[in-house]
Structures are given as C-alpha cells and as structure tokens.
Amino acid sequence: MQKINLERGQAMMVATVFFLVVSLTIIYGLVGPVLRQGQTVANLSLSRQSYFLAEAGVEDVIYRLATGKSVPASNTLTLNGSTATITTTTTATGKEVLSTGSVAGDVRKIKTNVVLGTGISFHYGIQAGQGGFRLYNSSSVTGNVYAEGPIIGDGGNYIYGEVVSAGPSGQIYGIHATGTAYAHFLGNAAQATIIDKSAYYQVKTNTTVSGTSYPNSSDQAVASLPIDDNQINAWESDAAAGGTMLSSQCDNYSSSTNTCTISSSRSIGPKKIPFNLLIKSASAVITVTGPLWVVGNITTQTQPTIQMDPSLGASNVAIIADDPSNRSTGSVVTVNQGTIFNNSGTVGSFVFMISQNNNAENGGSIDALTMNQGATALVGYAIHGQVSLSQSVSLKEITAYKVVLTQSANVVYDRGLPSVLFEAGPSGGYSILNWKEIQ
Description:
By secondary structure, the chain is α/β, with parallel strands linked by helices. It has three domains: 33-118 and 431-438, Pantoate--beta-alanine Ligase, Chain: A,domain 2 (2-Layer Sandwich), CATH 3.30.1300; 126-214, no CATH class; 229-415. Helix content is 16%, strand content 41%. It has helices at 10-66, 229-241, and strands spanning 74-79, 82-90, 94-103, 106-116, 126-135, 140-142, 145-147, 151-160, 163-165, 171-177, 181-182, 185-186, 193-195, 199-200, 203-204, 207-209, 213-214, 252-254, 259-262, 266-268, 271-273, 276-280, 285-288, 292-294, 298-301, 305-308, 317-321, 333-335, 340-342, 351-355, 367-372, 375-376, 378-390, 394-395, 397-405, 410-412, 430-438. The chain has a 27-stranded mixed sheet that branches. The protein starts with 9 loop residues before the first helix and ends with a strand.
C-alpha cells in the first residue's frame, strides 16, 4: 500500500498565502490614497458649497442695503436643505455682516464691513430752482448760492460765498457777494451790485467787481435739485413700512380738522401719520428714530424740541409733509418760534424737513415751508414749492423751487453737507470696506 505524503504542497500554500498578503498590501497601498483623495475631493466640494452659501448670505444683505430694503439683525438663508446664518451689526461708520454657511456639517464664515458711501450732494447753502432766490431787508447767506432763476437782493444783502444764476436767463443784482459771481446778466441799473472776487457774465450793469471780469463768458449749466420725487417716495415707503399711527396715539385728536396734537415727549419712527401733525409744548421732546410721512400739514408751536435718535449716527432722517390729494394748498410745513432741532450727537447728521407742496411751481405764492427763529440742525427742502425764512432763523441748508429770505434771516451752510446720507431709502449708499473669510 502506497503511503500518502500529507506534507506535500505546504510550500505552495505558504507561497500562495504570502502572495495574497503581498498583493492585498499592494492593492491597499494603491486604493487607500485613491479613497482618501476621493474623500478629500468630496470634503472640498462640501467646503466650497459652504463658502458659496456664506457668500450668498453676505450678498443678500449687501443687496438689501443697496436697494433700501429692511435688514434684520439676524437672518437665515436656506438653499437645498443647507443654511447660512447671517448677523448684521450697526457700527459707527456703517454695518458689519457675518455670514456662516454650513453644508453637511462643513462650516465656512465670511465677514464684511460696509461703510456709508456717497449720498445726496449739496454744494450750496441755498439752491433754488426756476423760481429763483429773493433777499429782503437785512437777510444774508453764509455759504454758496445757486439758482436756476434770478438771484435778487435789496441793494446790500450779503452772500458770503459764490453766487451762480444758471442758464441763458440767469440774473444777479442787488447783492454783495464776497466770492465769485456767475450770471448771463450781472447787475441792474436801479440797484448796485458788488462782487469781491471775479465775475463771469455776458452783460454787466451797475456792478463793481474787485477781482477779474470775464465778459462774454458761457452761461453756467442748469443743475437739478439734489433730491428728486423718486427718493422722497422711497422714504415715504420706508415710513409706511413702520406702520400707521392711530388717532388714539395722539395726545389730542380733532376730527373736525383731522389734526393730531403731540404735546408729550416720545420716540417715533419710522411711521406714516395720516393726519395733520401739530407738535407743541416747550416740555415736549420728540425723538425721531426713522423717517416720518405726514399725510397733511406739519406745524410746530411753543418751542418743542425735535431730535434724532443717537442710534442714527452719521445718517440723517427725513420728516415729510405730503398729502398726494392736496399739494396745492396743503402739504405745508410751518416751523414757529423757538423750535429746536438737534442731530443724533454725531457731527454731520441733520433733520430734513421736506414739503411736497407745489403751489409756487404752478405760479402761486403759498409757502410750502415757513420758518422763523430757532432751527439749528435743520435742512429745509421743497422741490416744487416756496420756502420763506424770516426773523432770526438760522439753518444749515435750504433747497426749494423758490427761496425767500426776509428780515434778519441767515442761512449758514455746513461743510458736512456736500455728501449727506440717510439710513433709509436709496440715497443712503454703502461702500464695501473689506470682505474676508474668518475662522
């Protein structure tokens, strides 16, 4: 009987097992990096998605700021089941936006700072439209004056700055300007005109020019007023978005005159006020926290104080009198004796009192905005109407279709006004200061 050797083939089995181990090791060595690379690519894709989602959150806030839409302090943006959490913080110069994007647990953060950019430009202490500018008695202007219509004084009214009456019918006479004058017609036979610096004109009459005269000069270009109806409509929309005031919220309401009287201190804004508004009482301090749209007339009496909320910072706030159903005899602003206007506490911030009355533009003489005594941090604006200033009123800037100064009224132009900014509406532009990813 032949004996079977059970040990035969062991070497082959050992060799086979060794070969399998070596092969698996080589395969793992090759596949492992490929798998890890695939995971890395997948993680990178998720990371990029998180980054783009975070950027989308920042861009959403920037778009809202650029278009004057509301920006919540905290917001969540959802895309395909993933989220970006955006927080917006008000800073001294603008906004800080932090957006955190998260996709499948992969987190990326983007932070940007935006600052208030160029807003509405005022380059004159007085700017008038075709209605022109008229000075009576001892009234004066400290700052530059521009008008599309004539600029006329009583024979000695001072304008401490440059004077421009634009267009082919531009005319200046009866004033003493300490700066340079520009007009097609300079001077008038009946009233002396004095220009301390240079003069650019086509026709000169009864005018003393201390600087250089430039006859046959080209007429100055006509410039539109700096705030148009579209911007005012946008501020009205911002005010309305804050809700409508009820008659029960007035200190007193008269249904016969549709007048809401406020005589106690309070904070208000943004708000639409569907009545005539009367603010009175020396003890009343009205703190404006956003734009106000009064669908009627605005009147102040008995030395109230109207001030901007400190949170508004360097931006400005608009208070608008505009009743679309009555812009001929209504939508007027009357600021009476001793009314005080205070800014937010930040230099360069102002209250803008705006009237949409259009009587003067249609040939009438009703005042869209009347002020006498007091004022301080106030800018008056009436794109279609007449502004009348009297007594010892002192303002920062006046712009209107027609401007009339009487008695000892004085407009003092503030150097901060060439670029004024509003928290609400399209005028309050923002510029991106920085945009970066953070850990």
